[in-house]
Specification:
The protein has 485 residues and is α+β, with helices and mostly antiparallel strands. 61% of the residues lie in helices and 12% in strands. It has 12 helices and 5 strands. Strands 1-2-3-4-5 form a 5-stranded antiparallel sheet, with no helix packed on it. The protein is flat.
């Protein structure tokens, strides 16, 4: 019963900070997402439902990244609070070890890690598919019509519009000039009006311009091709009121078929990634084998018919191959020059062929590596939750500081270290510098021993973060050296 109450106390002190820090982490990562894509969202007149849908997908996609940081920070805060209020000391004095205190949280962290893995494998590909398709549509949506004073607006296909002045209270536009070049033959039609107003239809497919007191100049020419060196007659039409309808069908948000993105590596689960990776590797091997055969057949062992009977072919009776040195020596000086020139041309052609094919090999290899990166990422992000707990919990027990002060600073430092190492390893894999398993597990290989070391030090009540202990150790070293002298 006593142990159960202790476990209940530890779980209660850990769950609260975990929920709070998880929400804070999601918010900070969401701000980073908005900062990254702010240029694609602003000024396009997106509906609130579209923005809400995009943010919902973004938040769900950031869950695997927010979990390790929140677990690290929550573990630091929970055990820091227990140590600051001397509850850890009381429990240890009662004969309960730190590992026994951490036991229920280890189980919970393991469950959270499993949940993170299933989320990354089953839910995240679907979210990436939805978000990728929606983000593609948002990026390709044309911005809303926004005509500034004194500046030509060319956002509408086939038209250039200039407004001299706007009256914000009445919505009237003054000194309007419209160049119509929708016929793709230059500025044949020019409309000038003293004033007007602009409205958009309810379906936002058309822009209606109501013009007052103006003139339209239309250039008239007989042939289809316009000669800029000749003068052409023009027609002038005056009007007191005119309505111009401009097509805005390209400005709406068009939803793309999601099936176009479903084969991307970010939209696949483990089974699909393994199948795609296997297919890509087989295609890569076939392409490599075909390249070798082509290189040997058309470049290294090129055969041409010779009508010159003066060339004596010497064959090796053992291997039945041509003895190149003997053949070359049997040629005349003129033939040697011709053969050398031809060989140089063959060498240049072969070098160009190898260089161009090398880029294809590199592109295919990088595409394979991206699939392998995504395969390992589903494990590394889940395993990071487990590692962060074994860093945060013992650190909190050692520093004995709760709240959002010291724990936040230490958590950010460790998470930045984890993130930088992870991104560095992933970058090396994308550049084909190291294999995928090595680059993706680099951060875990560095932080796991650190977590084991901190857990051991906290379980043995080490003064690892006590500066005075290090000063005393240094003093002892210098004192012993002085006695020996």
């Amino acid at each position: 019963m006593k142990i159960k109450r202790v476990h209940y106390l530890v779980i209660k002190s850990w769950i609260g900070p975990l929920v709070i820090t998880f929400c804070i982490s999601l918010f900070l990562l969401l701000m980073q997402f908005l900062w990254k894509y702010i240029d694609d969202l602003v000024g396009k007149g997106l509906e609130f439902s579209v923005i809400s849908e995009l943010l919902l997908y973004a938040i769900a996609g950031l869950v695997p990244m927010a979990l390790p940081l929140s677990i690290l920070l929550a573990s630091l805060m929970a055990f820091g609070n227990l140590g600051e209020h001397y509850e850890l000391i009381s429990l240890k004095s009662a004969g309960i070890s730190l590992t026994r205190i951490m036991y229920p949280l280890v189980i919970l962290t393991f469950i959270v890690s499993l949940g993170a893995f299933f989320f990354s494998n089953n839910v995240l590909p679907y979210i990436n598919l939805k978000m990728g398709a929606l983000l593609f549509d948002v990026r390709n949506k044309r911005p809303d019509v926004s005509i500034k004073e004194g500046v030509f607006y060319n956002g509408i296909d086939g038209y250039s519009i200039k407004v001299g002045r706007k009256n914000k209270s009445t919505g009237l536009l003054y000194n309007i000039m419209i160049y119509d070049h929708s016929s793709r033959m230059g500025n044949l039609d020019v409309t000038v009006a003293d004033s007007g107003r602009m409205d958009v239809t309810e379906d936002k497919r058309n822009l209606i311009l109501y013009l007052y007191k103006g003139e339209t100049y239309t250039e008239v020419h007989g042939d289809k091709r316009r000669n800029t060196k000749k003068t052409h007659p023009y027609r002038q039409d005056k009007f007191s009121e005119q309505k111009i309808i401009l097509d805005l069908s390209g400005y709406g948000l068009k939803r793309t078929d999601e099936n176009l993105f479903k084969n991307n590596y970010q939209m696949l689960n483990l089974k699909q990634l393994s199948t795609a990776d296997d297919s890509l590797k087989k295609a890569y091997a076939v392409y490599k084998n075909q390249f070798s055969k082509n290189l040997l057949r058309t470049n290294f062992f090129r055969k041409e018919l010779k009508n010159d009977t003066n060339i004596v072919h010497h064959y090796d009776t053992l291997s039945n191959t041509i003895c190149a040195d003997s053949v070359f020596e049997a040629m005349s000086a003129k033939e040697k020059v011709r053969v050398i020139d031809q060989a140089l041309n063959y060498a240049r052609t072969t070098k160009s062929y190898i260089s161009s094919t090398k880029n294809d090999f590199m592109h295919k290899k990088k595409w394979i590596n991206r699939h392998e990166i995504e395969w390992h990422r589903k494990f590394t992000l889940s395993f990071a939750c487990f590692i962060m707990f074994f860093i945060g919990a013992p650190l909190g027990a050692i520093i004995r500081k709760g709240g959002l002060g010291m724990p936040v600073v230490i958590s950010v430092l460790f998470f930045v270290l984890y993130y930088v190492v992870s991104m560095t390893g992933e970058k090396y894999v994308k550049a084909c510098v190291m294999p995928a398993w090595e680059g993706m597990w680099m951060s875990s290989a560095i932080l796991l021993p650190l977590g084991i070391f901190l857990t051991y030090k906290a379980a043995t009540d080490s003064v690892i973060l006590n500066i005075d202990s290090y000063i005393d150790a240094i003093k002892k070293i210098f004192t012993s050296k002085g006695k020996k002298k």
